[in-house]
Task: structure prediction
Amino acid sequence: MTLTVRLKAHRTAAGLTQAELAERVEVSRKTINTVENGVFVPSTLLALRLARALDTTVETLFALPEGD
Amino acid sequence: MSRNVLSLTRLVSNAAVVAVLCAFLAALAFGNPDGRGWAWIIGATALAGAAAQFVVSILRPSDIRPSWDEQVQASHRASLVFGYWITFATFLVFLALVLADVMSVDLAFYALGFPLGFAPAVWMLGAHLAGRAG
Result:
């Protein structure tokens, strides 16, 4: 099952670099990169931290594809 | 390239272990190397890498969490699983060699340390290079 990831759009809208977002949620920049590219699916905990750091909700950042 | 010094230290440590073990394999292929001497070299390299990571963790505690985030932990778990299966496969090969009197039990025991140390380091090195380990 694939995951629709809108993290990059929200991060850039917030004016943050990958490194800055990584520092806020205490992960490596590479982890932000792989999450944005859909290579790594984050845990619920990390998804919640990302949403909090971007002042949004998890459902806004991550969604199931239409029909799933 | 990561700016996290602990991640860089781990990368260098894994690369050093893999390089030394590759050198040992080359020595095996081209001659009859001193196994005891190589054991010291391999062990010292692995211990030096572990010590370096410990020291960096003490000096730069803020690097620890990003360096061991959940993606790195997932890669680390995968490296241990990989190491298990490689070692198990090697054990079966060595078992056959021992039963066929091609290899001594003592040598098989010591040689099993090779895949045990080599496989996880190779996996982690690959994960580093693929951007999956900090």
In short: Strands of chain A lie at 4-5, 62-63. The mean pLDDT of chain A is 93. The first strand of chain A starts at residue 4 and ends at 5.
